[in-house]
Design brief:
Elements lengths: L1 E6 L8 E7 L2 E6 L4 H12 L2 E2 L2 E7 L5 E6 L3 E2 L3 H10 L1 E3 L7 E3 L9 E3 L5
Protein name: DUF1667 domain-containing protein
Organism: Candidatus Anaerobutyricum stercoripullorum
């Protein structure tokens, strides 16, 4: 059996959680200080996800770039693809906080939204 060590970010404690596994099958999870830690470690081991943040170009606006983030989590293994795609996007001014820049960003089913303004 193998072990994978994961630092939990489910709460401020930052527990060092150990996942004991055979291949992709989890045998045991230990070291978590709360139920959030167990859940986080299981999810991080089986299907890690992240919120993607970046900027996109703005055409005709008060600033050349506007900050953006995904409205939900995307698979961690897609972050580079998301970064490349965000470089290809240009939004038309005006852009306001919460505006959807791209509905189904990179085929994830998650929207890319503005987190800043560009008038």
């Amino acid at each position: 059996m193998a072990q994978t060590r994961i630092i939990c970010i489910g709460c401020p404690k930052g527990c060092a959680v150990t996942v004991t596994h055979e291949g992709t099958t989890i045998q045991n999870i230990e070291g978590f200080g709360c139920e959030n830690g167990r859940t986080y470690a299981r999810n991080e081991f089986t299907a890690p996800v992240r919120i993607f943040t970046s900027t996109v170009r703005v055409e005709g606006g008060s600033s050349a770039l506007v900050p953006v983030k995904t409205a939900g989590s995307v698979p961690k293994n897609m972050l580079m693809e998301c970064a490349k795609e965000s470089c290809r996007i240009t939004a038309e001014a005006p852009v306001h906080v919460g505006d959807v820049i791209r509905e189904d960003f990179c085929g994830t089913g998650v929207a890319l939204v503005a987190t800043g303004d560009a008038s």
